[in-house]
Amino acid sequence: MKKLTATKLILYIFMAVGAILSLFPFYWMFVMATNSKEAINQTPPAFVPGDQLVVNFQNVLGQIRFFEALANSFIVSTLVTLGVLFLCSLAGFAFAKMEFKGKNILFVSILVTMMVPTQLGLVPSYFIISKLEWLNSMKALVVPGLVNAFGIFWMRQYIRDSVPDELIQAAKIDGCGNFRIYWNIVVPSILPAFATLGIVTFMQVWNDFLWPVTVLRDPSFQTIQVAIRSLNDVYVRDYGMILSGTFWATVPLVVVFLIFNKFFISGLTQGSIK
Protein backbone atom coordinates (compact mmCIF):
# COMPACT_ATOMS: atom_id res chain seq x y z
CA MET A 1 0.00 0.00 0.00
CA LYS A 2 2.85 2.36 0.87
CA LYS A 3 4.53 1.58 -2.44
CA LEU A 4 1.34 2.39 -4.31
CA THR A 5 0.95 5.66 -2.42
CA ALA A 6 4.55 6.66 -3.14
CA THR A 7 4.07 5.83 -6.80
CA LYS A 8 0.95 7.98 -6.97
CA LEU A 9 2.75 10.83 -5.20
CA ILE A 10 5.60 10.74 -7.70
CA LEU A 11 3.09 10.65 -10.54
CA TYR A 12 1.17 13.63 -9.16
CA ILE A 13 4.40 15.59 -8.69
CA PHE A 14 5.47 14.81 -12.24
CA MET A 15 2.06 15.87 -13.61
CA ALA A 16 2.11 19.06 -11.55
CA VAL A 17 5.58 20.00 -12.81
CA GLY A 18 4.50 19.24 -16.38
CA ALA A 19 1.39 21.39 -15.98
CA ILE A 20 3.44 24.30 -14.58
CA LEU A 21 5.96 24.08 -17.43
CA SER A 22 3.11 23.97 -19.98
CA LEU A 23 1.28 26.94 -18.49
CA PHE A 24 4.34 29.11 -17.84
CA PRO A 25 4.62 30.45 -21.44
CA PHE A 26 1.01 31.67 -21.22
CA TYR A 27 1.65 33.25 -17.85
CA TRP A 28 4.81 34.93 -19.15
CA MET A 29 2.91 36.23 -22.18
CA PHE A 30 0.27 37.70 -19.85
CA VAL A 31 2.95 39.29 -17.63
CA MET A 32 4.62 40.96 -20.60
CA ALA A 33 1.22 42.10 -21.93
CA THR A 34 0.50 43.87 -18.65
CA ASN A 35 3.85 45.63 -18.19
CA SER A 36 5.42 48.66 -19.80
CA LYS A 37 8.36 48.50 -22.18
CA GLU A 38 10.68 49.77 -19.46
CA ALA A 39 9.62 47.06 -16.99
CA ILE A 40 10.13 44.36 -19.61
CA ASN A 41 13.60 45.58 -20.61
CA GLN A 42 14.91 45.99 -17.09
CA THR A 43 17.26 43.41 -15.49
CA PRO A 44 15.82 41.23 -14.11
CA PRO A 45 12.52 41.66 -15.97
CA ALA A 46 9.19 41.85 -14.16
CA PHE A 47 7.75 38.47 -13.18
CA VAL A 48 4.41 39.68 -11.85
CA PRO A 49 1.52 41.21 -13.81
CA GLY A 50 1.52 44.98 -14.15
CA ASP A 51 -1.17 47.58 -14.76
CA GLN A 52 -0.52 48.36 -18.43
CA LEU A 53 -2.81 45.78 -20.07
CA VAL A 54 -5.38 48.36 -21.21
CA VAL A 55 -2.70 50.84 -22.34
CA ASN A 56 -0.85 48.19 -24.34
CA PHE A 57 -4.04 47.00 -25.98
CA GLN A 58 -4.97 50.56 -26.90
CA ASN A 59 -1.57 50.82 -28.60
CA VAL A 60 -2.40 47.63 -30.51
CA LEU A 61 -5.69 49.13 -31.70
CA GLY A 62 -3.80 52.19 -32.86
CA GLN A 63 -1.44 50.13 -35.02
CA ILE A 64 -3.63 47.43 -36.62
CA ARG A 65 -7.27 46.62 -37.36
CA PHE A 66 -7.35 44.13 -34.51
CA PHE A 67 -11.07 43.32 -34.28
CA GLU A 68 -11.46 43.22 -38.05
CA ALA A 69 -8.54 40.78 -38.33
CA LEU A 70 -9.96 38.77 -35.43
CA ALA A 71 -13.33 38.52 -37.19
CA ASN A 72 -11.61 37.46 -40.45
CA SER A 73 -9.73 34.69 -38.64
CA PHE A 74 -12.89 33.51 -36.89
CA ILE A 75 -14.88 33.40 -40.14
CA VAL A 76 -12.14 31.58 -42.06
CA SER A 77 -11.41 29.13 -39.23
CA THR A 78 -15.11 28.35 -38.73
CA LEU A 79 -15.84 27.82 -42.43
CA VAL A 80 -12.76 25.64 -42.96
CA THR A 81 -13.53 23.61 -39.83
CA LEU A 82 -17.12 22.96 -40.89
CA GLY A 83 -15.98 21.99 -44.38
CA VAL A 84 -13.31 19.64 -43.06
CA LEU A 85 -15.73 17.96 -40.64
CA PHE A 86 -18.34 17.36 -43.35
CA LEU A 87 -16.14 16.39 -46.30
CA CYS A 88 -13.55 14.40 -44.36
CA SER A 89 -16.22 12.46 -42.47
CA LEU A 90 -17.94 11.65 -45.78
CA ALA A 91 -14.65 10.44 -47.26
CA GLY A 92 -13.80 8.57 -44.06
CA PHE A 93 -17.18 6.82 -44.16
CA ALA A 94 -16.60 5.79 -47.76
CA PHE A 95 -13.13 4.39 -47.04
CA ALA A 96 -14.25 2.66 -43.83
CA LYS A 97 -17.59 1.09 -44.77
CA MET A 98 -17.93 1.04 -48.55
CA GLU A 99 -16.29 -1.14 -51.16
CA PHE A 100 -15.20 0.29 -54.50
CA LYS A 101 -12.47 -0.35 -57.01
CA GLY A 102 -9.08 1.08 -56.12
CA LYS A 103 -10.09 2.00 -52.56
CA ASN A 104 -6.85 0.92 -50.90
CA ILE A 105 -4.63 2.50 -53.56
CA LEU A 106 -6.52 5.77 -53.32
CA PHE A 107 -6.34 5.76 -49.52
CA VAL A 108 -2.59 5.11 -49.55
CA SER A 109 -2.17 7.93 -52.09
CA ILE A 110 -3.96 10.28 -49.72
CA LEU A 111 -1.72 9.22 -46.84
CA VAL A 112 1.39 9.82 -48.95
CA THR A 113 0.42 13.49 -49.31
CA MET A 114 0.83 13.85 -45.53
CA MET A 115 4.56 13.31 -46.01
CA VAL A 116 4.91 16.29 -48.35
CA PRO A 117 5.92 19.52 -46.54
CA THR A 118 3.40 22.33 -46.83
CA GLN A 119 6.05 24.67 -48.22
CA LEU A 120 6.52 22.50 -51.32
CA GLY A 121 2.89 23.04 -52.32
CA LEU A 122 3.01 26.79 -51.82
CA VAL A 123 4.01 27.74 -55.38
CA PRO A 124 1.54 25.49 -57.29
CA SER A 125 -1.24 26.46 -54.86
CA TYR A 126 -0.50 30.14 -55.39
CA PHE A 127 -0.48 29.61 -59.16
CA ILE A 128 -3.91 27.96 -59.06
CA ILE A 129 -5.38 30.67 -56.82
CA SER A 130 -3.93 33.33 -59.12
CA LYS A 131 -5.43 31.72 -62.22
CA LEU A 132 -8.81 31.55 -60.49
CA GLU A 133 -8.46 35.27 -59.62
CA TRP A 134 -9.01 34.56 -55.94
CA LEU A 135 -6.10 36.61 -54.60
CA ASN A 136 -7.06 39.09 -51.87
CA SER A 137 -10.29 37.23 -51.11
CA MET A 138 -11.59 34.89 -48.43
CA LYS A 139 -12.01 32.15 -51.03
CA ALA A 140 -8.23 31.85 -51.25
CA LEU A 141 -8.13 30.94 -47.56
CA VAL A 142 -11.27 28.83 -47.27
CA VAL A 143 -11.49 26.64 -50.37
CA PRO A 144 -7.99 25.06 -50.32
CA GLY A 145 -8.46 23.98 -46.70
CA LEU A 146 -11.90 22.38 -46.94
CA VAL A 147 -10.45 18.87 -46.97
CA ASN A 148 -7.16 17.41 -45.80
CA ALA A 149 -5.45 14.04 -45.64
CA PHE A 150 -5.23 13.89 -41.85
CA GLY A 151 -8.96 14.52 -41.50
CA ILE A 152 -9.79 11.69 -43.91
CA PHE A 153 -7.39 9.34 -42.13
CA TRP A 154 -8.71 10.26 -38.67
CA MET A 155 -12.36 9.83 -39.67
CA ARG A 156 -11.71 6.59 -41.51
CA GLN A 157 -10.02 5.03 -38.49
CA TYR A 158 -12.64 6.26 -36.05
CA ILE A 159 -15.65 5.19 -38.16
CA ARG A 160 -14.11 1.80 -38.84
CA ASP A 161 -13.70 1.08 -35.13
CA SER A 162 -16.80 2.76 -33.67
CA VAL A 163 -19.58 1.96 -36.16
CA PRO A 164 -20.42 -1.79 -36.38
CA ASP A 165 -20.79 -3.30 -39.84
CA GLU A 166 -23.95 -5.06 -38.65
CA LEU A 167 -25.57 -1.69 -38.00
CA ILE A 168 -24.75 -0.55 -41.53
CA GLN A 169 -26.15 -3.77 -43.01
CA ALA A 170 -29.34 -3.47 -40.96
CA ALA A 171 -29.85 0.08 -42.22
CA LYS A 172 -29.41 -1.07 -45.84
CA ILE A 173 -31.97 -3.84 -45.32
CA ASP A 174 -34.40 -1.20 -44.06
CA GLY A 175 -33.89 0.71 -47.31
CA CYS A 176 -31.53 3.47 -46.19
CA GLY A 177 -29.28 5.01 -48.82
CA ASN A 178 -25.62 5.74 -48.23
CA PHE A 179 -26.11 9.39 -47.30
CA ARG A 180 -28.94 8.60 -44.91
CA ILE A 181 -26.79 5.95 -43.24
CA TYR A 182 -24.04 8.54 -42.91
CA TRP A 183 -26.31 11.26 -41.56
CA ASN A 184 -28.56 9.26 -39.23
CA ILE A 185 -26.23 6.50 -38.04
CA VAL A 186 -22.61 7.46 -38.54
CA VAL A 187 -22.70 11.14 -37.54
CA PRO A 188 -24.34 10.58 -34.10
CA SER A 189 -21.76 7.86 -33.38
CA ILE A 190 -18.66 9.96 -34.11
CA LEU A 191 -19.33 13.21 -32.23
CA PRO A 192 -16.10 12.87 -30.17
CA ALA A 193 -14.16 12.47 -33.43
CA PHE A 194 -15.85 15.62 -34.75
CA ALA A 195 -14.82 17.55 -31.63
CA THR A 196 -11.21 16.37 -31.80
CA LEU A 197 -10.78 17.05 -35.51
CA GLY A 198 -12.67 20.33 -35.17
CA ILE A 199 -10.39 21.66 -32.44
CA VAL A 200 -7.24 20.58 -34.27
CA THR A 201 -8.43 22.13 -37.55
CA PHE A 202 -9.66 25.36 -35.95
CA MET A 203 -6.36 25.89 -34.14
CA GLN A 204 -4.33 25.05 -37.25
CA VAL A 205 -6.23 27.52 -39.45
CA TRP A 206 -6.28 30.19 -36.73
CA ASN A 207 -2.50 29.99 -36.27
CA ASP A 208 -1.66 29.74 -39.98
CA PHE A 209 0.58 32.57 -41.16
CA LEU A 210 2.43 31.48 -44.31
CA TRP A 211 -0.54 30.96 -46.63
CA PRO A 212 -2.54 34.07 -45.60
CA VAL A 213 0.48 36.34 -45.91
CA THR A 214 1.13 34.87 -49.37
CA VAL A 215 -2.32 35.36 -50.91
CA LEU A 216 -3.57 38.46 -49.06
CA ARG A 217 -2.42 42.02 -49.61
CA ASP A 218 -5.52 44.04 -48.71
CA PRO A 219 -5.43 44.92 -44.96
CA SER A 220 -9.23 44.54 -44.77
CA PHE A 221 -8.86 40.78 -45.42
CA GLN A 222 -5.88 40.14 -43.15
CA THR A 223 -6.14 37.42 -40.53
CA ILE A 224 -5.09 38.03 -36.95
CA GLN A 225 -1.69 36.32 -37.33
CA VAL A 226 -0.76 38.52 -40.28
CA ALA A 227 -1.99 41.62 -38.48
CA ILE A 228 0.00 40.83 -35.34
CA ARG A 229 3.10 40.25 -37.45
CA SER A 230 2.84 43.82 -38.69
CA LEU A 231 3.35 45.03 -35.10
CA ASN A 232 7.02 44.07 -35.52
CA ASP A 233 7.46 46.39 -38.50
CA VAL A 234 8.69 49.31 -36.42
CA TYR A 235 12.12 50.66 -35.51
CA VAL A 236 11.57 50.39 -31.75
CA ARG A 237 9.75 47.23 -30.73
CA ASP A 238 7.28 47.53 -27.88
CA TYR A 239 7.09 43.97 -26.59
CA GLY A 240 4.31 44.88 -24.19
CA MET A 241 2.16 45.98 -27.11
CA ILE A 242 3.12 42.94 -29.23
CA LEU A 243 2.41 40.46 -26.43
CA SER A 244 -0.84 42.23 -25.59
CA GLY A 245 -2.07 41.63 -29.14
CA THR A 246 -0.81 38.05 -28.99
CA PHE A 247 -2.56 37.47 -25.66
CA TRP A 248 -5.95 38.65 -26.87
CA ALA A 249 -5.53 36.71 -30.12
CA THR A 250 -4.99 33.54 -28.05
CA VAL A 251 -8.13 33.95 -25.95
CA PRO A 252 -10.56 32.62 -28.61
CA LEU A 253 -8.48 29.44 -28.94
CA VAL A 254 -8.58 28.86 -25.20
CA VAL A 255 -12.36 29.41 -25.15
CA VAL A 256 -12.94 26.97 -28.01
CA PHE A 257 -10.76 24.33 -26.36
CA LEU A 258 -12.49 24.70 -22.98
CA ILE A 259 -15.93 24.37 -24.59
CA PHE A 260 -15.06 21.16 -26.46
CA ASN A 261 -12.49 19.82 -24.00
CA LYS A 262 -14.67 16.93 -22.81
CA PHE A 263 -15.34 15.69 -26.34
CA PHE A 264 -11.69 16.24 -27.30
CA ILE A 265 -10.43 13.95 -24.52
CA SER A 266 -13.14 11.41 -25.31
CA GLY A 267 -12.12 11.34 -28.96
CA LEU A 268 -8.44 10.80 -28.15
CA THR A 269 -9.10 8.01 -25.64
CA GLN A 270 -11.80 6.21 -27.64
CA GLY A 271 -10.87 2.53 -27.81
CA SER A 272 -8.23 2.69 -25.06
CA ILE A 273 -10.85 1.60 -22.50
CA LYS A 274 -13.28 -1.11 -23.49
Automatic annotation (TrEMBL):
<protein>
    <submittedName>
        <fullName>Carbohydrate ABC transporter permease</fullName>
    </submittedName>
</protein>
<keyword id="KW-1133">Transmembrane helix</keyword>
<feature type="transmembrane region" description="Helical">
    <location>
        <begin position="74"/>
        <end position="96"/>
    </location>
</feature>
<keyword id="KW-0472">Membrane</keyword>
<feature type="transmembrane region" description="Helical">
    <location>
        <begin position="141"/>
        <end position="159"/>
    </location>
</feature>
<dbReference type="InterPro" id="IPR035906">
    <property type="entry name" value="MetI-like_sf"/>
</dbReference>
<feature type="domain" description="ABC transmembrane type-1">
    <location>
        <begin position="70"/>
        <end position="260"/>
    </location>
</feature>
<feature type="transmembrane region" description="Helical">
    <location>
        <begin position="105"/>
        <end position="129"/>
    </location>
</feature>
<keyword id="KW-1003">Cell membrane</keyword>
<feature type="transmembrane region" description="Helical">
    <location>
        <begin position="9"/>
        <end position="30"/>
    </location>
</feature>
<dbReference type="Pfam" id="PF00528">
    <property type="entry name" value="BPD_transp_1"/>
</dbReference>
<keyword id="KW-0812">Transmembrane</keyword>
<dbReference type="InterPro" id="IPR000515">
    <property type="entry name" value="MetI-like"/>
</dbReference>
<keyword id="KW-0813">Transport</keyword>
<feature type="transmembrane region" description="Helical">
    <location>
        <begin position="239"/>
        <end position="260"/>
    </location>
</feature>
<comment type="similarity">
    <text>Belongs to the binding-protein-dependent transport system permease family.</text>
</comment>
<feature type="transmembrane region" description="Helical">
    <location>
        <begin position="180"/>
        <end position="206"/>
    </location>
</feature>
